[in-house]
What does this fold into?
Amino acid sequence: MESHLGFRGRRVLVTGAGKGIGRAVAVALGRAGARVTALSRTAADLESLTRECPGIETLCLDLADWDAVEAAVGAAGPFELLVNNAAVAELQPFLEVTRSALQRSLDVNFGAVLHVSQIVARQMIAQGMPGAIVNVSSQASKRALRDHAVYCSTKSALDMLSKVMAMELGPHKIRVNTVNPTVVMTDMGRINWSDPQKSAAMINRIPLGKFAEVDDVVNSILFLLSDKSAMTTGSSLMIDGGFLVS
It folds into this structure.
């Protein structure tokens, strides 16, 4: 799929690129000829990523550190494409939500997306360069889930942020969209949803009868980054097997 999407030589930043979806996106883009910068807060993950895909450049940063991000991302750019994938999932019952969990979730799931996108979009505009931004949201932005008060809320906020970004950045030829997956079978997803009793309750609400694989999400992100989706902005692409229609 990647070979005909026109990524060769294009500069792209992927956050949360150490594991899971972000890592798979970075690898796919690197193999498609893009010049990838992978951002993660875990040095060991970035080291293993560069062994897997030697051409990838890395940034080891905590996205909650506003000043460090400003300096490092600003120096690493300019970028033509951006994937905001980094997120945290602090799952607590509503009555037990802690201030620290709330703040960390807001900092990473919402604030970091806003901040990194500002830095990258300003560079695109200064260069007179069209671009595309894909923010990784969730089906949890559209449907209440038990113990997900903070996570659902930050992802819902991310969806609306993405729409405003699309509206304001459109005149600069910068497109902004989200992908909204259901449970994804990353390594962590397989661990968290390996209990048949737990997984059955969710799968029974998905008309296609299965969770998403990592490639399902990666392929959707690549499409939205590519010129094949040149008329698509401000959209949320559901990768949920029909969860929201059931």
